[in-house]
Each structure stands twice: as structure tokens, then as C-alpha cells.
Amino acid sequence: MGIFSDIVSSVSNFAHKLTGSSPDTSQDSNAAPAPESNDKTQQPAPTPEASVAHVDVEAVLKDLASKASTPLNYQTSIVDLLKLLGLDSSLEARRTLADELHYTGDKNDTATMNVWLIKQVYTELAQNGGKIPANWGH
Q: Which are the contacts of 29, defined by CB distance < 8 A and separation ≥ 6?
């Protein structure tokens, strides 16, 4: 499981806590049922598309930010977004995330990489069905 998957899982989990609902584990009605197995290790990991679909990402993040002990600029800072979600915000973690999201720039230019990362994370969340404001990720 990668860092982007961790972001999706965190957003999804916080969304379900916020709404009091349980995660959507339903499958596409046209999909073949998964084979039953007693071995949990063979079960596929949830996909970002399934776990963030229809989640109001903005509402989840606003709620988390309202409970944070310090102000976090999660709309424009990848470091603050990761902190808000309780994830590793180290340079190593951000470089790993950049690799996952296919960043082609210089990862030693951390300012440029960080700006690209925050935009790309919100773009990916939106592409996977998450609801975000139009100006995030652009």
C-alpha cells in the first residue's frame, strides 16, 4: 500500500466517522463476485476509486482542521495535508509520493515538488470520485 492509498484511506475513514456511516464495501453489480477465502491476506486491497468515491473531501478536511491543535494550510501545503491526516510528512515520504504519482521533476527542488504534489493529490482525489472545490488542484 502506498502513500497515496494511505491518503485515500484516511480521508475515507474520517468521512465515515464524520457522517456516522460505514465504509461502502459494495461492488459493482456487473462485476464478478470475489472468490471466498478464509485467507484474508489474499483479499485485494481496496482501490482508491472505491474508497473515496462520493466523499466530500473539503468537508472532511475542514472538520479535521477545526479540531487540529495548530492551524494547517492543507489546501496549498502537502506537508500540512499529510499532518492533518496523521500521515508521515517527511521529505522521504513526499519523495515516495512523488514517485507514486509519476513526478518527473527534480525531487531535490522540494518547493517545486511540494507545489506539484498538493495539486496532484487533489486532482487524483477528484479523478477517483472525491468531491473537492474546483480551485484545489489547479
A: none
**Three-state DSSP state, 16:** helix
pTM of the model: 0.77
C-alpha grid cell, residue 98: 512523488
Tens digit of pLDDT at every position of the chain (138 positions)? 699 999 999 999 998 887 766 544 443 333 333 333 333 333 333 444 447 888 999 999 999 999 999 999 999 999 999 999 999 999 999 999 999 999 999 999 999 999 999 999 999 999 999 999 888 866
**How far apart are alpha carbons 32 and 133 in whole angstroms?**
34
DSSP three-state, residue 56: strand
